[in-house]
Each structure stands twice: as C-alpha cells, then as structure tokens.
C-alpha cells in the first residue's frame, strides 16, 4: 500500500514540477553564494592591496573587513530566502499533492 502511494506521488506531474522548482531555487541561491565566495578568494589572491585600503585616514579598519562580513551576511540572507520560499510555496504545494493523491 505504502509503495503504491509513493509511486503515485513520484509519477505525478505536480510533484515533478515541485522538484524542478525546488532544484532551480536551490541551485540559483547556491551559485550566487559560491560566486561571491570565490570572487572574494580571487580578490585576496590577485588584488590583496584593494582589501588593505583603509576606510578612512583615521580608521584601522580596512575595506576587506566589511566585504568579508557582507559575504557572511549574504549566506544568511540566501538561506532565509530559501526558507521563506519553502514555507510559503513549497510546503503548500506538497500538501496539495498529498491531498490530491490520497
């Protein structure tokens, strides 16, 4: 009985559409995050003097610190975006699929 239900769910067009959409959203957010991280690493490797520029004449903080913090914040934001989309859209579609099939 249970395997029959699984087959129905997996074979439904709505489920396939949901899986594709989840995949697309996660790949896009992952790509943005990875691109940002790798860009920062390349900046460190090839243009470290840019990161060593001080924010102001009297400051000891270089421009690299806010850039690094921004990258970490971007990772949190991308996670939050995925959670919002999952809670608003994906979960509702999953419930609809389960109700329709049962």
Description:
The chain is mostly helical. The chain has one domain. It contains four helices and no strands. It has helices at 2-11, 13-46, 48-51, 64-101. Helix 2 packs antiparallel against helix 4 (64-101). The longest helix is centred in the last third of the chain and has 38 residues, at 64-101. It is elongated. It starts with a helix and ends with a helix.
Tags for this model:
elongated, 4 helices, 102 residues, mainly alpha
Residue-averaged pLDDT:
92
**What is the molecular shape?**
elongated
Biggest β-sheet strands, sense, barrel? none
Poorly predicted segments: none
Number of helices: 4
Structural class of the helices, strands and pairings? mainly alpha
Question: Quick one: how many beta strands?
Answer: 0
- H/E element string? HHHH
Radius of gyration: 22 Å
Q: Give the helix level as a range of percent.
A: over 70%
- Summed up, the domain count is 1
Distance between the termini: 11 Å
Hey, roughly how much beta strand do the residues contain? under 5%
């Amino acid at each position: 009985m249970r395997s029959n239900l699984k087959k129905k769910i997996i074979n439904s067009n709505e489920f396939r559409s949901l899986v594709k959409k989840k995949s697309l959203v996660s790949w896009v957010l992952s790509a943005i995050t990875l691109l940002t991280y790798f860009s920062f690493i390349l900046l460190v490797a090839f243009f470290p003097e840019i990161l060593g520029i001080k924010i102001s004449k009297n400051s000891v903080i270089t421009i690299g610190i806010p850039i690094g913090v921004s990258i970490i914040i971007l990772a949190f934001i991308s996670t939050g975006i995925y959670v919002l989309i999952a809670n608003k859209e994906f979960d509702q579609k999953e419930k609809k699929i389960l109700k329709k099939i049962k």
